[in-house]
Amino acid sequence: MTWEKFLAEGDYAVTLIRNGLRKRGINTGESILTQFNTDEDIPVYDNLGNKIFWISVKTVFQSITDPIRQIPPGYKGWMCGEVESKQWVNPPAVVIWYCRNTKIAWGAITPTRPSTKWIIYPDRYGTKIDKRKTAATGETHYIYPSYCVPTSEIISKDEVINYIQQLSISC
Asked: Global pTM?
């Protein structure tokens, strides 16, 4: 599988979730690039067009049937974004994981400072080789430390949608 195909599958998940939120009356926009050279997958706007928060979408490539009890071997929790990104400075309100194989979605609400509540993996300053991207591109790529969200912080799809609707209504 090429890296372009991996990226396309991520874009598919973002589009699917964005469309689902729009069907529920949530004012979502297209992905945008930030000053940190990272993307905001789904910005959410109030009725005046002001951005009130954003949603980070993560695609999962294993077959996940129960995200609270089922974590792939070796995982300490669900991964959420690089430390060296805007999430360190301006965290999203919500993270949504989507399993492309089972079509199950789940999420977590990001703390104001993720570092105070969530584990940083692999460690605060280290890097690991991204084997999947390296194999797909033929060049060495690294994974920078990411937040690891423990299963105790995971909420269901319905809880995620309810939280997003509440945030949208309150602004």
From this structure: 0.85
